[in-house]
Amino acid sequence: MKIRSPLPRKRVRLEIIPLIDIMFFLLASFMMVSLQMQKVRALKASLPTATLATSNTKPDLINLMVEQDGQLRLEDRPISVADLYTTLTNRFHLNPNVPVYVHGDRRATHGSIVYALDLVKRAGIQRVAIAVDALATTPSSP
Predict the structure, then answer these.
(1) In a domain, 70, yes or no
(2) Among 14, 22, 99, 102, which is disulfide-ready with 127 (CB 3.0 to 4.6 Å)?
(3) Residue 26 domain-assigned?
């Protein structure tokens, strides 16, 4: 004969959520302690300062402007085609990688811009860019 207890029997239940919390806490603790155990070795270095970064030298580039009537301007000075060609070839011989930025008036003709680009190409300069003003890109009525 079985004797039963007057108290109801409860099933044993293992709570796993607190166990997971404890394991994450231990993992984080071990990681933090292991990071603190590394010896950080650093050398004191006396590095030189850059003197060229504070100089007032302008970069070697050429600004070429084509006006409405086809007149060419080099660095905001009017220049003839022959003088421009000799200036470009002389600058090319001093620095073969000199860039040329071609600015054009919005009313300048396509032919005058192409003529300026052809002149730069004949001087031997390979790095040519057409400069664009951000404000002048929206078309407006003339």
Answers:
(1) yes
(2) 99
(3) no
